[in-house]
């Protein structure tokens, strides 16, 4: 019964993973950063590469962006860590561990 309840959280968790994914590499953000001028989030490596190699602008809204505009976002990093742990435990069927992570 309890496993069935946790399995129903999978669509919501999938949506959260989608929202926390880098729009450039389509993976959960690694070392998440935000561009100060537009507040879009990316992996640090992805956005630094994009700004230096492709264009000096945000890949989403095209506002000008430079390396000095890239700032770490530790709060998003913490959320990504929690979501990643929940995701791996749900896939393994470890319901009690997910409950502990949430509480």
From TrEMBL:
GO biological process, one term: protein monoubiquitination
Signal peptide as annotated in the record: 1-27
Keywords: Metal-binding, Signal, Zinc, Zinc-finger
Gene Ontology MF terms in the entry: single-stranded DNA binding; ubiquitin protein ligase activity; zinc ion binding
PROSITE patterns: ZF_RING_1 (PS00518), ZF_RING_2 (PS50089)
GO cellular component, as recorded: nucleus; Rad6-Rad18 complex
Name of this protein: BRCA1-associated RING domain protein 1
